[in-house]
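Q: I have 181 residues here and want to know how they pack in 3D. Can you give me a structure?
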Amino acid sequence: MILNITTSDWIQIVIAVITLFGIISSLWISVKTLKQNSKMIEETTRPCIVIYKETIAINSPTEYIAIKNFGVSSAFITKLDFDKEIFNKINGDFKTNLEYLKNIMLAPGQRYLLPIVTRKSEIKNITFSIEYTNNTRIYKDIFDVNLSQDYSVAYDKTNSTPNKELITIANAIQELIKRIS
């Protein structure tokens, strides 16, 4: 039977093989594209919690550890670890405040500011380990926060004394302008 195959039969076999190869490669490209699109959609719609130090300097700098969701979907914090001995050296209440942030929902754009006092301590860095979910995927991040990052730019402007209310208001407006721009 193989000997009775004509040229036209060979051409049809070759065309069928090429068509089969085209179909398989099209399916492979489609699956690959769908996976990439799914990953891109997840990355653009996921929560993104960041832990950092923030300082508000109106008359004298007030330091905070900020925990903010920069993502576009809500995040449920399932785990928040840190070195408790370091926090005992900084501020006893701060450790308690951090404990409250476990098992909470953080909406997009929502942040918590937890007051700390680091200028009087010798501690320069704190490491946080956070785990959170958006009910479909678990995210884990580690943040090494530099506590002395703003010591040279955040300084006492003036003491709050009687008859200096206009200076205090001016300092507050300057801080607001800094944050808006």
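Q: Anything worth noting?
A: The mean pLDDT is 82. The first helix runs from residue 7 to 45.
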